[in-house]
Amino acid sequence: MNRIVLVRLLAVAALLLLFYIALRRTTRVPGRGQTIAEMAIDFVKVQIVDQILGEKDGRRFLPLLAAMFFGILAMNITGIIPGLNIAGTSIFIVPVVFALAGYIAFVYAGIKQHGGLRFFKNQLFLPGVPWPMHFILAPVELLNVFIVRPISLSLRLLLNMMVGHLLLVLCFAATHFLFITGEGLGFASAFGVLTLIGGIVMTVIEFAVALLQAYIFTLLSAVYIQQSVAEEH
User: Fold this and answer.
1) How far apart are CA 74 and CA 88, in angstroms?
2) Where would you find the membrane-spanning parts of this chain (predicted)?
3) Are 168 and 202 in contact (CB under 8 A)?
4) Taking a C-beta distance cutoff of 8 angstroms, is the pair 73, 12 a contact?
5) In this structure, are residues 101 and 186 in contact, taking their beta carbons and an 8 Å threshold?
6) Are 88 and 7 contacting, i.e. CB atoms less than 8 angstroms apart?
7) DSSP code per residue over 21-45
8) Of the candidates 106, 98, 78, which has an alpha carbon nearest to the alpha carbon of residue 164?
9) Which residue stretches of the chain have pLDDT < 50?
């Protein structure tokens, strides 16, 4: 148990508690909490799942993709919450876990839809390509589809959240130095105001990045699942 593990546990607990409070007594005419929760889930359903997977496949994978979206979002936002100040996704293991969940869903959906042999054929052998070229392209597709995809998903999320965290630390550490440690310097107050404003602006940007990265991660996972259930590559 360390600080970032505690932050992750708090993010998950807060997420579960909010949805439990909002949806524990659902009614035909929803109250404010139920309305907000339904709008949040509907955002994932309409903007990601239905558009990419369609209604039939979307219904199957909505629970996974919604959990992925809100889980990533909750852990991203901890980076800008005072007292927590670190994103739960800013260390590699959590992005990898989410990427592996999407990867397993991708393989499972393809094998269930087509059978194992046809699934791997669809992923590795591009249609319309002269057969001698498959000796070159099949290994490339194997590397791209089954190795690069989960790694790239993980790294995209990790690096965005880690860089945002470092920029926030830089802005507010500079503000602390200029206002307190560097109090005797003539320019300290002026530059301290600038770094403080920069930190506030970066906090707003980091919130937007947290939301955007959850959206992109979930969207790409849905795209990969859709490619696995499609008839052709």
Assistant:
1) 8
2) 6-23, 61-84, 90-111, 157-179, 191-216
3) yes
4) no
5) no
6) yes
7) HHHTT--SS--HHHHHHHHHHHHHI
8) 78
9) 233
Q: Which two tokens stand for residue 66?
A: 């919604």
Do the Cβ atoms of 69 and 211 come closer than 8 Å? no
Type of residue at 90: S
pLDDT for residue 27: 85
Residue whose pair of structure tokens reads 């936002």 in the numeric block: 77
* Residue showing tokens 């996974």: 64
**Alpha-carbon Rg of the chain, whole angstroms?**
22
Q: Are 61 and 105 in contact (CB under 8 A)?
A: yes
39 φ/ψ angles, rounded to the nearest 5 degrees: -65, -40
Range of the domain at 55: 3-229
Residue 132's pLDDT is: 84
pLDDT value, residue 200: 93
Q: Rounded to whole angstroms, how far apart are CA atoms 135 and 94?
A: 36
Relative orientation angle of helices 149-176 and 188-229, to the nearest 10 degrees: 170
Q: Is 76 exposed, middle or buried (0-12, 13-18, 19+ CB in 10 A)?
A: buried
d(Cα 98, Cα 185) in Å, to the nearest integer? Answer: 47
**What total number of domains does the chain contain?**
1
Q: DSSP readout, 92-140?
A: THHHHHHHHHHHHHHHHHHHHHH-HHHHHHHHHS-TT--GGGHHHHHHH
Compute the residue count for the chain: 233
Looking at residue 131, its pLDDT comes to: 83
